[in-house]
Amino acid sequence: MSDRARQMSLAGFLIAGPVVHSHALWRNPARPLPFLSADYYLDIARTLEAGCFDLLFFADRLGIGDRFGADKDTGLRHGDQDATRLDPIPVLSMIAAVTRHLGLGATRSTTYDQPYNLAREFRTLDHLSDGRAAWNVVTSMNDGEAANFGVDSHMGHDERYDRADEFLDLAFKLWDSWERDALILDRETGLFADPAKVHYVNHEGRYFKSRGPLNIPASPQGRPVIIQAGSSDRGRSFAGKWAEVIFTLAPDQPSRRRFTDSIRASLVEAGRAPDSCKVLPAIMPFIGETRAAAEAKRDLHNSLVSPVVGLSTLSGHANVDLAGFPIEAPVDELRGSGTQGNLAMVSRIARERQMTLADVGREYGQSVMVPQICGTGAEVAEELAAIFLSGACDGFVVSPAFLPETYREFVAGVIPHLQERSVFRRAYPAGTLRDRLFN
């Protein structure tokens, strides 16, 4: 095994808005959150690049939260995860100009987009970033998004993945429609490109029809790195076919191990090598000079979250209205047409801990079930290194509690200890994002 193969991957998680997994993010007592300004995102990107993170990726959704109480009031009043989201592609285009190594990931939906448009967006980003583009593939999850696109009700779970399979198939054809040496640019002879190396795709399927070719030459990576987060059976099957990075929510070590083993099996079933995809569970670190100081930061953070705001976000994720259920009643099982893996996890944890709906809402608002890790920089690094070296994952998605504090403290306090343990790089190697992830 090479030294590079032993080293963990790290991704920063963000939403271009006031909330990430932490619903206390915008209520940071130390400073306001300028989430509508360019400098805010550029500062975060520079911090992550200083820490040699593999990538920063933005989650996204295509509508405000209005499933809870069948109204927009609660989500907007309390600031749930969907209250505001800027489009991540323009944000990443700005970040590309001020960074040189950090991978740049954006969420785009296969349910409410078209392959040709999306293929152009990511090929452009890949060119402008010298090969650092990544696409977080989502199928979208709730009826509020459907309504914004003139659709009466959201497409069923498995059908969304059927459409997504064809979407990626066509997008890959479009990215492959230019051979790498098709662009000639011979100024002396006047030959711009070799027409024989630019191909029509002539795709005609159940959901899409496109002649092609793409109107942008091949980019450094050829296609973006594919990120995916589906954890249902159908989602894992989809990931096994397409994904290169898997983002997952796993609350403990046994669930991390089970999920990673299931992804490895899905990769092999799809005819791929078991190490051809990075599995990155999310963590939310609280770092202090002592463990007690870190726990005090966590407790302050968690105290700022109302159960109602968590239930508003969970209603959107589950695509079900939770407002009609007694808030102090024990939770047995949550059902909905949204994110099935997340729903199953929340239901299991609620049963095991005998949680009420209010308890679920409070914890969901604090972290959307992302495990919170407290300690000094050395202690957090030791815990992450132990999880990584156990083989339960390939690295981590770091989700901030407060910004810019979480990423600054992680880079200053945790990264050096990971480097001392030889589980994380000290400098970026040359190459594209895909090169850094897999070479």
UniProtKB/TrEMBL annotation:
InterPro entries, alphabetized: Diverse_substr_monoxygenases (IPR051260), Luciferase-like_dom (IPR011251), Luciferase-like_sf (IPR036661), NTA_MOA (IPR016215)
Family, similarity comment: Belongs to the NtaA/SnaA/DszA monooxygenase family.
Binding site for FMN: 60, 107, 157, 161, 231-232
Gene Ontology MF annotations: monooxygenase activity; oxidoreductase activity, acting on paired donors, with incorporation or reduction of molecular oxygen
Record has Cell membrane as a keyword: no
Protein name: LLM class flavin-dependent oxidoreductase
NCBIfam families assigned to the protein according to its UniProt record, in alphabetical order: FMN_nitrolo
Organism ancestry: Bacteria, Pseudomonadati, Pseudomonadota, Alphaproteobacteria, Rhodospirillales
Signal peptide: none
Domain Luciferase-like intervals: 24-388
Alphabetized UniProt keyword annotations: Flavoprotein, FMN, Monooxygenase, Oxidoreductase
